[in-house]
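The instructor's notes for this session suggest beginning with a concrete chain rather than abstract definitions. Hand out the sequence below and ask the class to guess, before any prediction is shown, which regions might be ordered.
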Amino acid sequence: MRLFTILFLASGIASLANAVDIAYNDPRIEVDGALIVKDTGSSLHFQRFTDYLHARQRADGSNITKAFYNDLKAASASGVLLRFTTSSPTVQVHLNEIDFQSRAPQLGIIQNGDNDNITEFNPGSNPGAFTLLVDSVDPGNAVTYEVVLPSWANVDFTGLTLADGYDLADNPVEDKPIYAAFGDSITHGTGQGCKAYQTYPFRLAEANGWQLFNFAIGGSTTTPEIADVLDETVVTTWANGKPDIITILWGYNDCQNKSFTLDDYRARYTAFLADVLAHCPEARVFCIKPTATTDPEGATVDGVDKHIDHYRDMVEAIVLEFQSEGHDRLYLIDGQAITKEDELLDAVHFTPEGAQTIADELDKAINSVLNGGLSLNDWLQDNGLTLAQLEEDENHNGLPNALEFLMSENPSLVNTDTVRPGLQLSAGNQLAIHFERPYGVLDDGVSVTLQGSANLVDWDPVASTLTTLYQGNGVWRYAYQQTASIHEGGLPYVRLQISVN
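After discussion, reveal the predicted structure:
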């Protein structure tokens, strides 16, 4: 990656001869990632949240009684960017830092989508009005610029200056899927300086050509009211479409909080997730269990010692409950498995390299869902098999071809590295069969049923739930679990029946 830093303060820039000034509110300048854009009369001001959420209020005006988040941190611009296109050989971007809690703004400018050669700017602490000057990577030809605003500060946009004889052009028309990220400082960007372009949501969005809305607030605990940002009845942003992909990562601050119990977390996470699913029923929603930490012990509340594993288990239990109710666009990701302790900056926040690891893992997980996986017909054709051969065991390894398909294995090879299907007994004494595969969804033409037996002779379908867990390195874990305990009507033997619809 070729990175370099340039900063010119407004007072230090000599005016270009016959330079062309572009107004701050020119309609050819697009804004991504801001829920609300306000025209102050001299600049554009960007908000990730509504005014009432900044006042820690609900949409109906009632107060959010507990301080679940800091509204000053919410006022930062993580994920917000400006986009414009011009053939000018030089571009000046005029900005003014907003006076509030700031960690010294750091900005970046991307040209023609080349994230590897981003130009970095470090204006320093409390710069006031300042200007970014950047040279075109392709002088004389149209270049699309993306100005990435800081993650832990905010700036108003006051206009552009182009070289003499140049003007803005229309931006390329792009129909981008919308990605919304929710969470605390891990998602907001602590550990990556004030560089929003190094946060995992930004890297994930840029790698896939998605439009990002980063709704994370550093220091926050799980806050149901924040789901209101997805409510089209109070926010006009979604007039042209709601988020298509949503990630949720909360838990560490809840664990460390000295007032909130695990039951509080269950109630608030459940309420938040219910609202997200109600507002965005077509979105793919990925709930991430709390990530790696070197400080897993939480606070003691009402005599109970909390531990981060309690919160990991709770996220899984909540997601399973929603999935059992028919929410089949909801997915679970093992946050501990997709992160590394040696990429932590401190006990919980990640270095830029750690943020990249998270982005890479989420990219694998999410796209394995969006792309739909390998179809049964394609798998059969690739392996020279017919439907009639699904019950056979092509490689004589004890696994029928149908199960080899579920596991995306080659039925002609004996793979000694294959993790064979396993049997597990849950904490509630429920039997389950689990296996691994590289895709987060099954072919629509294939159905899997859990069957139970009391004598290994008579088999019947049993009520069951399916849990899919992304466990890193491109692998999903599927578990079909009998809903009844073996002590309360559940059967002592289970098997999978695979059917072609």
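Then share the key points. Confidence is low (pLDDT under 50) at residues 1-15. The two ends are 49 Å apart (CA to CA).
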